[in-house]
Amino acid sequence: MSTVPDFSGLRVAVAGDLVADHYLFGEPSRLSREAPVIVLRHRREELGAGGAANAARNLRSLGARVTCLGVVGRDKSGRELLERLEKDGIDVARSLSVPEWSTPTKTRVLGSEPGRTPQQVLRIDREPEVPVPAPARRELATRLAALAGEVDAVLLSDYGYGLLGEELAPAALALRSKGTVVVLDPRKSFTLFRGVTAMTPNLGELALAERRSIEELAQPGDIAAAGRELAQRCALEHLLVTLGNRGMLLVSKGETSTVSAAGSEAVDVSGAGDTAAAAFTLALASGAGGREAMRLANAAAGIVVMEMGAAACALDALRSALPGSPRPTAMAGARP
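^ that's the sequence the OP posted. Answer follows.
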């Protein structure tokens, strides 16, 4: 496959942790008299989509029809986040607004002189004090199960807020048993979703799953061995490990291949994993093999890291970037 598939006919559900990305932009004005810090003059602020919301935006930007299943609080961040997704053409009717929950919100303070690229100065995370309430988890599991026959793929986006647990796993696996492509972008719950089509951990998440330190996975051969172990233990068709500026590693049906990172030096890696998972999911749902799906995911991630904040990869941009993107290569001794 030498071109990007047409994703417009694909129907995809995203189930996962919705996060509000709040950006505060300022211009350096002077040193404070109160402390040795720079005073930023407020210029503007924006609310962006993070976590599963960012994954949903990437799926939609690449052409798929997207349904989002997640939880927000009945707060300003939650309302604005759902409105943002709706404006992007994403169906949020199956998401829940829960009074006893607060929307996870990441506030990034950025400063720059006029005409220069903003630089992050500080990040403040407003985290819920408790996991997603059990009734909400059960209701979303029911809503996901009801999508049987209505979606071609499901992307599960885990940011550790408790939505992807024992309630949702059976619903996702039931969809998989009926032929739906199910991809997990994991944080912790690996074995709970044993039997999904694919997982897309980063290196730290792979190390966590295999109970190893990142230092123990310093060499490509060590990463490949750990990837094969996880793929076998979780009965996966594909395991895509994202490695930042080192590219990606794929374990697909017993064979291991790698691809070097696409693009130039990154401006901002926020949300690149969401983009990779989205492109990988769409490629698999369109019938692409593991290596071609990795190539598409790698090219898409290479596009969004050149933008500030969590960005969505446009289909035209992916088509333009793909001809020159790195091609996957098989690793020596690839079979276990």
